[in-house]
Amino acid sequence: MDDNRRHLLAKVAYLYYIQGRTQSQIATELNIYRTTISRMLQQARQQHIVTIQIEDFNPQLFNLEEKLKQRFNLKNAIIVPSDRVANNQQKNAALSKAAALYLKQIIKPHDTVGFAWGLVLAGMVGQLQHPTQTDATFVPLVGGPSPSNSQYHVNGIVYDAARQFGGHSLFVDAAAVQESKLIRDGIIGAKYFYEIKRRWQQLDIAFVGIGGPLSSKSSRWRDLLTDQDRQLLKEREAIGDCCCTFFDRHGKILNGDLSDRTIAIPLPHLQRVPNTVGVARSLTKVPSITATLKMGLLNTLITDEETAKQIMDAQ
Amino acid sequence: MDDNRRHLLAKVAYLYYIQGRTQSQIATELNIYRTTISRMLQQARQQHIVTIQIEDFNPQLFNLEEKLKQRFNLKNAIIVPSDRVANNQQKNAALSKAAALYLKQIIKPHDTVGFAWGLVLAGMVGQLQHPTQTDATFVPLVGGPSPSNSQYHVNGIVYDAARQFGGHSLFVDAAAVQESKLIRDGIIGAKYFYEIKRRWQQLDIAFVGIGGPLSSKSSRWRDLLTDQDRQLLKEREAIGDCCCTFFDRHGKILNGDLSDRTIAIPLPHLQRVPNTVGVARSLTKVPSITATLKMGLLNTLITDEETAKQIMDAQ
DNA sequence: TTAATAATTGCACAAATGTGTCTAAAAAGG
DNA sequence: CCTTTTTAGACACATTTGTGCAATTATTAA
Fold first, then answer.
1. Nearest protein residue to D10's C1' (by CA)?
2. Are residues B56 and A101, on separate chains, in Cβ contact within 8 Å?
3. How far is CA A301 from CA A279, A287, A297, B170, in A?
4. Residue A53 DSSP symbol
């Protein structure tokens, strides 16, 4: 590569990229054939005589998204950059905002949108300045919390979402975990529950959180579990839950007495939903998020950088 | 400009410029209309989210070339970067090389190429590794030096050029300045000079140097001038010469006894040559180069950065 | 909230760019 | 110096990109 050639390539690149002339113009001016100019530009890029930089964009984050998508066969992955100095609350808020933005992006006028429990899901409400006005239906995917936790009711989430997006919402008037299979079956067999179940069959979008290990204290609904439940889950090596349904690290759903007493959309159901969006972050949740992904329940994951890195590194 | 929008633009720019995907692909992937992608890229460039840098290229030099071209109605201008630590010899060598490269670039198989005096012109010879093989004719545009300076004869330049480019050359067997108009007329009226004059009429390319003030010592041919010549030129405020013809700072050609005794192509002749290339540098020559440009004799100038800057600043 | 203002979509068409192939010319190497 | 290997020219054609415009949809401000 001659020095004059480098200079010529640089000049052509300058005229094209900086001055914005067309290749034809440059060709005429320099008495070089147009197609040659085209090839010269290729070469100039190859040899890094032309350098294109993009601000406000982290290619590593993008690559991480791509890898996640590929590894777990996802339709989409959204990774929020991790701010090293932020506390957990701020990190969760950032995730909530990203989730809200994504919902706004994908929602269509007459969609049916399901929500499960989740601190981050609850945080989504109120994050949007000008939500798209729709006529969508918002439906809980699980039962509610214990009476002492009523302000965090999943019904509250769908109600607020409906208000924001101009649609309407359905309620579940029962706690997520009942005392016996008999009662549970009674509730979900009752007439008023038909509409919920019907909606579960025709979800367009489902937003679900992912719960971490049992030892974690942050759950809003697990006070419904009995000591015996906890004991059993521990024995069967539960590492987390999604829609109030527990599974182990291999992604095996832990059916049994507890699941028989639980009011929630059956997890395999989620696979048929066009947009199943999991929203979760934090290092303690890495195993449960990974297991969920392995189960193939989700086709979109919204998480943060540090969590995503751990998920990929754990492979 | 929203933060999310910036990020979106950055992502689109990344996919397009770095990953090399087409706008259609990006549109499909992000569910955005293709033309919107096109407009997003425009915006990303405008807002400097995308930055394109070009190495080995000095935009200032380029702008200087453009300004020179525009100011003096030139077809071309070539400016060699000035190396602050180079001495005059090195600077002249760099200019010679650029001139040689340019000749190689524009010469065509059967061209007639004229050369005048000039240290830089003389330096052109031997600068090319693989000169284009032509069948061109090389012809002197002026007479030779005094006998004491015979190794710098203009005939030597054309002879060497012809050897390099595979063509042939014509000679002038007379000094540039004769003792009287009578002798001069005799020489240029002689039969053997017909061919030269004929060639002067059909030049395709002319390379000419530009001489600086009389006080300057670097000239190779001015020892032919008499004391009286010098006195007269001083009175008439000569600031330089081109092809052994002097002019003042306004570009007025100083006709008279001296010019009547000079064997050289008449300067106005140069205007009809398709490529008239002036090659000169140094700060002392700025006034004479400027005057030459104002006369409109040249359509191409090859000089260096420091000289070019002075020429433009002097305006 | 509504009205005004701005931005995006969707489309048709024009312009610009890229690529394969062949020929001609130029560098490189012996 | 001649031969081999690279590079550029020239062209046809396919692909990609840009632009004006009308209709729609967001966003802002009152």
1. A33
2. no
3. 6, 14, 11, 81
4. E
Domain shared by B31 and B136, yes or no: no
DSSP labels, A124-187? HTT--SSPPP---EEEESB-B--GGGGGG-HHHHHHHHHHHHT-EE----SBSB-S-HHHHHHH
Whether A51 maps to a domain, the answer reads no
Q: Is B191 on the interface with A (CB under 8 A)?
A: no
Tally of domains in chain A: 2
pLDDT one-digit tens code per residue, B160-195? 888 888 888 898 888 999 999 999 999 999 998 999
The residue range of the domain holding B247 is 59-313
Residues B63 and B37 in one domain: no
CATH of the domain at B27: 1.10.10.60
- To probe the interface with B, which of A50, A53, A58 has the most B CB atoms within 10 Å? A53
Same domain, B179 and B261: yes
Q: pLDDT of B115-134, one tens digit each?
A: 998 888 888 877 776 777 78
What crossing angle do the helices spanning A305-313 and A59-71 adopt, rounded to 10°? 50
A293 neighbors A267 (Cβ within 8 angstroms): no
Q: Out of B4, B55, B62, whose CB is closest to A51? A: B55
